[in-house]
Amino acid sequence: MTPDDDKLLRRAIALAGEARAGGNPPFGSLLAGPDGTVLAEERNSSLTDRDITAHPELKLARWAGRELDPATAAATTMYTSCQPCGMCAGAIARSGLGRVVYALSGEQLDGLKPPGTAFTDPPSEGPALYTEARVPVEGYYR
C-alpha cells in the first residue's frame, strides 16, 4: 500500500458514506487508471434503485467491460470500502480488472452486523444431465 492507495481508498470510504446518506447500504468504490487518475466512481444504490445487484463494484466492473479495452482494464485498480461479495468478485474477474484494494474484509463487515443478518446460500444440487447440458456449450470455448 502506498500513500496514493490510502488516498484513493479513503475516497471509496467517503463514497460509502454518501451511499448511506442517500438511503442505501454503506458501500462505495472507484476505479483508477495506472497513473492514479479516477476513471469512474460508484455508490451502492440497491435500495433506491430497488435492484439487489446495484453494488458499486458490480457497476464499475460492468462499466469497465463496456468502456475499456482489455489492456487498459488490466492496468486499473478498484478501490472499494469493503471486500467485494461473491457476485461482485465474479464480475471483477470477468471484466479483467488488474487489482482490487479494499478497506473492510467480509469477516470484519459481518462483525459489524447484528447476529442473524448474514446472507446464507440456498441448498443446491448438481451437476446433473451432463450429456444434455454439454451440447450447447461444447466447442464454444475454442
TrEMBL record:
Domain CMP/dCMP-type deaminase: 3-115
SUPFAM superfamilies: Cytidine deaminase-like
GO molecular function: catalytic activity
Pfam families for the chain: dCMP_cyt_deam_1 (PF00383)
Superkingdom classification of source: Bacteria
InterPro entries: CMP_dCMP_dom (IPR002125), Cytidine_deaminase-like (IPR016193)
Protein name from the UniProt record: Nucleoside deaminase
Organism in which the protein naturally occurs: Nonomuraea longispora
Lineage of the species this protein comes from: Bacteria, Bacillati, Actinomycetota, Actinomycetes, Streptosporangiales
